Amino acid sequence: MHALTPDDVARLVNEWGTRARAEAGEDADPYPEPGSVGLPDGTEVDVLVRTADRLQTVFAASTPEQRIRRLDGLIAEAGLSVHLHGDDAGRAREEWEPASPADAVLVAALHTLTDVVVARGAAVLGVCEGVECVDVWIDGPRGRPRRYCCSQCGGRVRVAAHRRRNRLDER
After folding, report:
1. pLDDT (tens digit per residue) in 99-119
2. What are the boundaries of each domain within the chain?
């Protein structure tokens, strides 16, 4: 299985995760095509849901240290093997292989999350702080720390805070 992008991992959790779909009122809606997150068409929905639900626990941890522990726990549960493959120029690349083919999507996502956490720290993973939103995000390498899954959620929070302040001022 090829590696997923960080955006693919976040979309996987947000589009197939039980909690995210319920919060968005999408429980009964059809799932998107697996190709929308860089996976082969025909990837089984139950595999994607199970993977998304397991990954969501990493994002939902309240501290970076807990995120690292949960990520490490999933890596241990997956029983994966890491192999190095070299090219003619002597450069190596690692390949993560699941103990079970059913965990191929999980292992691809764990590989991506591990690369992100090792390079930038676990604080770049999180869950939206917007009202009634549980979508996950992976923060980009630049800018202010992220708190919301998208500008819409951030905007809703700012508008609600502004309206609250105005109501208090009117009293």
Report:
1. 999 999 999 999 999 999 999
2. 6-123
